[in-house]
Write a structure and sequence with these properties.
It is an enzyme of class 6 (ligase). Helix content is about 35%, strand content about 15%. The protein is an alpha/beta fold. Bound molecules: glutamic acid and zinc ion. Glutamic acid binds near residues 14 and 192.
Length: about 300
């Protein structure tokens, strides 16, 4: 269904490394509400470019969870595993325009340098064998305007580094795939978690080197555990519960500082979301990360089961 009347295009781009949890719901909901509040389109892309990190069946479950939470997307889902030709073409273009080079430096060397690469292989004209491909940065980007946070300056070493766009093990790098796909899908605004602030300057540098227009960015606060770590599939954040989606949607809206439909307990999921679209206001979103609400920690489990698991 596309009732879009504006040129705004937003997206949610989960990696299928596990089910959706409260943290990913924040990113899905925030990007959805922002696009819909502007009568824009909202797309879903499954970022399955890293097979070793994939969990079998997670992609399908993510899509089912989005439907269950009433987050309907426009058009077809784009799967990064189907986009290898496009990534290859983008890499070829960079190679032809001398905007990339092969690098065989071992990880240990970069570690010795303090973590950032020094451009050692820039002028060596190494062959492709057993090498990573790096972007030859022409015009590094040192910061960007975030729609929630204002100007965000990047670490200058990070900003200037000739980062990897194709890995030595043959995998396409996240920064390459995300930029090629967001451009391909006509995405105009990227609303995602604050954990992705760091790579943003690199992504903007890539847009510029391709000569593509750069989307707007808005980085949402993260849901964190009591130990201060972000909720993630790696630290076993519980999957969103099946069944009634409204209670956790309300928690997610609260997390994003948004007003809640009064009497939502008696309202439909559609009405709850519609109200949220109408009321969506960026200015209400907190910038600080915040603790995951209790209701969203382990919705399936009762107290004693939770205690057993955390032991
Ligand atoms: N696939 C990335 C993740 O799940 C998100 C990419 C993005 O939003 O730019 O963390
Ligand atoms: Zn090198």
């Amino acid at each position: 269904m596309n009732t879009s009347t504006s040129s705004c295009v937003g997206r949610f781009a989960p990696s299928p490394s596990g089910d959706l949890h409260f943290g990913s719901l924040i990113a899905a909901l925030g990007s959805y509400l922002s696009a819909r509040a502007q009568q824009g389109r909202w797309l879903v892309r499954i970022e399955d470019i890293d097979p070793p990190r994939e969990v079998a069946g997670a992609a399908t479950r993510i899509l089912t969870q989005l439907e269950q939470y009433g987050l309907e997307w426009d058009g077809e889902v784009l799967w990064q595993s189907q986009r290898h030709d496009a990534y290859r073409e983008a890499l070829d273009w960079l190679q032809q325009h001398r905007q990339s080079y092969f690098c065989t430096c071992p990880r240990s060397r970069i570690h010795q340098l303090g973590g950032f690469y020094d451009g050692h292989c820039r002028a060596l004209h190494l062959p492709a064998d057993n090498a990573a491909l790096r972007l030859r940065q022409h015009a590094p980007v040192f910061g960007f305007d975030d729609r929630l946070r204002g100007y965000l300056a990047a670490d200058t070493q990070l900003a200037q580094e000739d980062f990897i766009i194709h890995r030595r093990d043959g995998l396409f790098a996240y920064n390459l795939a995300v930029v090629v796909d967001d451009h391909h899908q006509g995405v105009t605004e990227i609303v995602r978690g604050a954990d992705l602030i760091e790579p943003t300057v690199r992504q903007i540098a890539l847009y510029r080197q391709f000569g593509w227009s750069v989307p707007d960015y808005l980085h949402l606060p993260l849901a964190i555990n009591p130990d201060g770590n972000k909720l993630s599939k790696q630290n076993h954040a519980p999957a969103l519960p099946a069944g009634d989606a409204r209670p956790l949607l309300v928690q997610a809206l609260r997390f994003l500082g948004q007003p809640i439909l009064e009497g939502w307990q008696d309202a439909s999921l559609t009405a709850l979301l519609q109200h949220a679209v109408e009321q969506w206001s960026i200015h209400l979103i907190p910038q600080q990360n915040a603790l995951i609400p209790d209701e969203a920690t382990s919705p399936f489990l009762n107290g004693s089961q939770q205690a057993m698991i955390s032991r």
